[in-house]
Specification:
By secondary structure, the protein is of the alpha+beta class. The chain has one domain. Helices cover about 40% and strands about 25% of the residues. The chain contains 8 helices and 6 strands, in the order ααβαββαβββαααα. It has helices at about 5-10, 10-30, 45, 80-105, 155, 160-185, 190-195, 215-220, and strands at about 35-40, 55-60, 65-75, 115-120, 125-135, 140-150. The protein has a 6-stranded mixed sheet, sandwiched between helices. A hairpin with a 2-residue loop joins strand 5 and strand 6.
Length: about 230
Amino acid sequence: MLSDAYLKKCSKQSLVVKYWSYLFEQHFSKKSLFLQWGDTIYTECKRLNLDFKLDLRFIAETNKGPVDISNGEFAKVQAATKSKYYSDKLKAILTAKCHLNHLAQGLQGTPKGLKIPIIMVMGIDCHVFSLSLIDRGVYILQQVLSISYPRMCHQVSKGGIAKLLDGFAVIEDLIDDTINIYDEYSKNIDNIIDKIDGNSKKKVDIDKWLSPVIWDEDDYSECSDTGEDEED
């Protein structure tokens, strides 16, 4: 159905427009999410002078306003190299850490339940990871799932499209859980009378849980010969 030769001819933008963007928009448009496509930078990254341009950003509406909740990177088949994969993955993870730190700073308690999905697509294959905080200064990256766009008729007949949509549902659950935690625990529920009397409970020092995003541009440049020039 989709030959190797055809997929190799597709630019990154062709793959996004023809195959991926419609599915993402259809699945997530029913949520209070805005999908921002095309090399944009998260506001918090700009504030930290981090020039991380992402192919896809998920922006969620919360009780405190819009927040970035997930991100994704795409690559064409011809650019599916080790250097491209790891440079994109590094950029996506560091951006997710910015998301996680920003959300955690808005909480009234420990930020253990927050998970930021990271979507990595190369050609018609997709891996999804999640970044979370499990202890003070301890971040963990976990691979959540691996899905592929069905390219052969027998894959479709064996439920390939359903498997793809099931994978999207997992991403949706991660996003929903994180939004719910943020909405629930970002509210200030302190007793105002106790606060006046000086009897209010001591709050969790969120800053002790977080570590800054460290970016070595020289190291990144050495591994980012990505072959992603769109010349076809």
